[in-house]
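Suppose you are handed only two things: the residues of a chain and a line of SMILES describing zinc ion. What would the bound structure be? This form records exactly that question and the answer produced for it, so the two can be stored side by side and reused later without any lookup.

QUESTION INPUTS
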Amino acid sequence: MKQRMQRFMAGRYGADQLGQLYLGVSMVLLVVSLFSRWNIFYAFALALMGYEYYRMLSRQVEKRYQENQKFLNWRYQMAVKRNRRKEEFKQRKIYRFYQCPSCRQKVRVPKGKGKICITCPKCKAEFIKKS
Ligand SMILES: [Zn+2]
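ANSWER OUTPUT
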């Protein structure tokens, strides 16, 4: 039985982090559907689960791998942004954070200096803000 399963899965993609997320979300939707009168949650949970099984059994390993990589990159970017926000929040009493109007670079300036002219360290554009 185990051998047959192994033979069946040979050359197929299998589980990954994106798949775990899909299965997790569909489990949540199933639980929600228990308490909801709308069948849409149930239908969506089944569809998502079906899609993930399709991914696991897929023979297009490279394509599935790329999907997962995209997801992992996105998750990493989210973590980076979250950490940056945390850092800004910690420093909010001493610094102010502005975004350069021309290149969107984040600029940190000391707080409480009145109106100041800020020079962007990246593109050298100048803009005036209250600090
Ligand atoms: Zn700039």
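WHAT STANDS OUT: The two ends are 70 Å apart (CA to CA). Residues 61-90 form the longest helix (30 residues).
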